[in-house]
C-alpha cells in the first residue's frame, strides 16, 4: 500500500508548500523554553503570550520571515562584579517560531508584567467566482 502525502493527493493541487511548512515546523527546534499560551480572542483573532521573566523590550526581537512569526530573546550578562550563592535564573537566549496561515497578520505586541503578548488577526478573503470559457481546440 502506497502512503499518499498531502502534496501528492490527487484532489489537493498546489499544496506541496503546506507539506513543507509542516516539515519545517516539526524541525524548528522549539523546546520548552519559553513557555507560551495561544488563545482565541474572537472569531478572527488570536493572542500568543510568552512568559519572559527578566527580559525587557530591548532584549527581544519579533519578525515575520516567510510566513513564520519568530520571537528571539537575548539578555546581556549582568553578572560582572556579582557573587551568586545560587543562580537559578539563567540569562539565556531563545528562539520561538510559529507558522502563520495565509491571511493571518501580526498586530500589536505588548510587554506586561513579564508576559509578551502578540496579537494576530485572520482576514477572510472574498469569495471569488471565476468563469472559465471553453474554446474550441
Arrangement of strands in the largest sheet:
1-2-7-6
Could you tell me the radius of gyration in angstroms? 21 Å
Largest sheet: 4 strands, antiparallel
| CATH architecture annotation name of the largest domain | Sandwich
Q: Average pLDDT value?
A: 86
Gap from first CA to last CA: 39 Å
Low-confidence stretches: none
CATH class of the largest domain: Mainly Beta
Got a strand count? 7
Summarize the structure.
The protein has 137 residues and is mainly beta.
Task: Describe this structure as you would to a colleague.
With 137 residues, the chain is mostly beta strands. The protein folds into two domains: 1-30, no CATH class; 31-122, Immunoglobulin-like (Sandwich), CATH 2.60.40.790. 8% of the residues lie in helices and 35% in strands. It contains one helix and seven strands; from the N terminus they run αβββββββ. It has one helix at 16-26; strands spanning 36-42, 45-51, 60-64, 68-73, 94-99, 104-112, 115-122. The strands form two sheets. Strands 1-2-7-6 form a four-stranded antiparallel sheet, with no helix packed on it. The protein has a three-stranded antiparallel sheet with strand order 3-4-5, with no helix packed on it. It starts with 15 loop residues before the first helix and ends in a 15-residue tail after the last strand. The mean pLDDT is 86.
Relevant terms:
single chain, 137 residues, mainly beta, Immunoglobulin-like, 4-stranded antiparallel β-sheet, 3-stranded antiparallel β-sheet, 1 helix, 8% helix, elongated
Topology:
Elements: H1 16-26, E1 36-42, E2 45-51, E3 60-64, E4 68-73, E5 94-99, E6 104-112, E7 115-122
Antiparallel strand pairs: 1-2, 2-7, 3-4, 4-5, 6-7
